[in-house]
Amino acid sequence: MKTKTLGEIIKATMKEKGINSSVVARKMNLSRQAISQIGLRKKFDLDFLQRLKEASGLDFTAIAYEKITDSAIDAQHAHPPALTQGITINITVTTKNKEKLENLAAFIDEVEEAGKRFGFELT
Prior knowledge:
This protein is an all-alpha fold.
């Protein structure tokens, strides 16, 4: 059974819910073709998914996070690290919209919870 890409999931869900791609495209300031061909896309950034949520009312960020963590698990099992000491990884979070900062604490909480599930310690 073929696993659907996030783009295919978005396209199927929009069709199932009867969401007009022209309306979503206009609200996102994109071409109609950009939305109607969304099923062909392989990658989505979180900003795009947030804008899609605002324009369509559909939230696909949880699916995106799930796919990211699934990929990380697959990669970890394919090449397990042979480490005796910890590694420090610095992450930068940016936003172009100051109003989004009110969601930062919730975002950090989600990252911490996901990190714990996969054996990471966030400091």
